[in-house]
Design brief:
Elements: E1 3-7, E2 14-20, E3 28-29, H1 34-38, E4 58-61, E5 66-69, E6 72-73, H2 74-80, H3 83-92, H4 99-111, H5 117-124, H6 132-146, H7 156-181, H8 195-204, E7 213-214, E8 217-218, H9 223-235, H10 243-252, H11 258-270, H12 277-288, H13 294-302, H14 323-338, H15 344-358, H16 361-366, H17 373-382, H18 390-411
Helix pairs in contact: 3-18, 4-7, 6-7, 6-11, 7-8, 7-18, 9-14, 9-18, 10-11, 10-18, 11-18, 12-17, 14-17
The structure holds carboxymethyl coenzyme *A (CMC).
Carboxymethyl coenzyme *A (CMC) binds next to loops.
């Protein structure tokens, strides 16, 4: 086995550490016995150089702007599979082999999409003004009180039920949170509709379970809208050991109920440095208001005395164009051509921001490119989804990834409780 040698220049001592093999990307030095061998810790705030686990789910090459799910490039996945196929791929390791398997899995999700009435009662007590992300994390934590059947860590079937149930219910919870926030009555899932269509239906339907009536009759949820949202979910489905996934694993490492760990993941995603950025991007585009203000805005972003950042730009891993951003930008232009009209002003400002930023020394030097959150809000707005639901949409998309990562963690007999050290500098 290849090793690396650490030399303590103070004492002259040498220590060998194994290099862990991998199938793609950088190898890692196994520092798990660093302290036992040397009496010192490694220091890596933000874990920029630290691998917390070995994983088989998704792979990112940040230099080349590449993202793979289960070894397949993201663009191929988006072209070939529906979101529910991707969910199956991630949580079981196998995509549906044929149409029947695909339909069977999707139907299972439809039938699991209902909420316990008592959960609805609990959520009804939240203030209308609550952010949907707060409702969601609370609701998922509360699900652990309704589904306490996760007891036997050796029963692998329980992991699958746990994952399928939450993937099925999360759109219902998001729709519920939205309707609650506007004081509208809750619309129950309609199992005659597919996973994505049903979500749009629960957002849009009127009491009596009808969609909007116009002089031309009842409006439809179009296949193009469903396809667009399906692709957006897929593009968010998994992304290595990002902050929320790491949170899910860390919380799960204590042996807690899986829904408590997933609830923690939702909270981690909420922050504007992570999934919450998609909401802030739209705020910024609206604040800029006009293409002529873009240069002034970029100057403010570059001002180091101001902590202000260009939202939807930059990434810890990608130092080139985020492939998800590329796919979302293409999708935006394609949908626009096919008849889902994007807000032309917002779209123009976003593209001008990108153009100015990508030719600016500040962004070039730091490898700052648009990330997944930069263009998604423009499409979501065209799908009539309110800004407060942008991050919850990310939650729906990411749930299969979190669930898969959680299962991978729970199945790992060598996984230990997460318990980093500290460098004490106090009294
Ligand atoms: N605008 C302006 N400057 C930036 C930005 C930005 N969006 N992002 C990074 N920088 C600068 C930063 O100031 C630093 O400059 P310097 O070297 O002079 O101090 C340098 O680039 C490196 O930044 P960092 O903060 O050390 O990078 P990080 O890896 O710790 O942070 C990030 C990554 C995503 C939190 C950060 O790029 C950011 O805050 N972006 C805006 C928020 C955003 O869009 N988040 C969504 C991320 S993608 C969705 C997801 O998976 O979460």
């Amino acid at each position: 086995m290849a090793t690396v040698t650490l030399i303590n220049n103070e004492t002259g001592e040498k220590f060998d550490f194994d290099l862990i093999e991998c199938t793609r990307g950088p190898k890692a030095v196994d520092f798990s016995k660093l302290f036992e061998k040397t009496g010192i810790f490694s220091y890596d705030p933000g874990y920029g150089s630290t691998a917390g686990c070995q994983s088989t789910i998704s792979y990112i090459n940040g230099q080349e702007g590449q993202l793979l799910y289960k070894g397949m490039p993201i663009q191929d996945i988006v072209d070939k599979y529906s979101f529910t196929d991707v969910a199956k791929l991630l949580i079981t390791g196998e995509a549906p082999k044929n149409k029947d398997e695909s339909v069977e899995f999707e139907l299972e999700l439809r039938h699991r999409s209902f909420l316990n009435e008592r959960l609805i009662n609990i959520l009804s007590a939240f203030p209308d003004s609550a952010h949907p992300m707060a409702n969601l994390s609370s609701a998922v934590a509360a699900l652990s009180t309704f589904h306490y059947d996760y007891r036997d860590p050796d029963n692998r079937d329980e992991y699958q039920v746990m994952a399928r149930r939450i993937i099925a219910k999360i759109p219902t919870l998001v729709a519920f949170s939205y309707r609650h926030s506007i004081g509208a009555p809750f619309i129950y899932p309609d199992i005659s509709r597919g996973y994505v269509e049903n979500f749009l239906y629960m957002l849009r339907a009127y009491p009596g379970n009808r969609l909007k009536y116009t002089k031309d009759g009842e409006t439809e949820i179009t296949p193009l809208e469903v396809e667009a949202l399906d692709k957006i979910f897929t593009l968010h489905a998994d992304h290595g050991q990002n902050a929320s996934t790491t949170t899910v694993r860390n919380v799960a490492s204590t042996g807690v109920h899986p829904y408590a760990a997933l609830s923690a993941g939702i909270n981690a995603l909420w922050g504007p440095s992570h999934g919450g950025a998609n909401e802030k991007v739209l705020d910024q585009l609206r604040e800029i208001g006009d293409v002529k203000n873009v240069s002034k805005f970029i100057e403010r972003v570059k001002d180091k005395s101001d902590p202000f950042r260009l939202m939807g730009f930059g990434h810890r891993v990608y130092k080139s164009y985020d492939p998800r951003a590329k796919a979302i930008k293409n999708l935006k232009n394609e949908l626009n051509k096919k008849g889902i009209k994007m807000d032309a002003r917002l779209s123009e400002i976003a593209e001008a921001l990108e153009e100015v930023a990508l030719s600016d020394e500040y962004f070039i030097k730091r490898g700052l490119y648009p990330n997944v959150d930069f263009y998604s809000g423009i499409i979501l707005t065209a799908l009539k989804i309110p800004v407060s639901l942008f991050t919850p949409i990310f939650v729906i998309g990411r749930m299969p990834g979190w669930s898969a990562q959680l299962i991978e963690h729970l199945k790992n007999p060598h996984a230990r409780i997460t318990r980093p050290r500290q460098v004490y500098v106090g009294k």
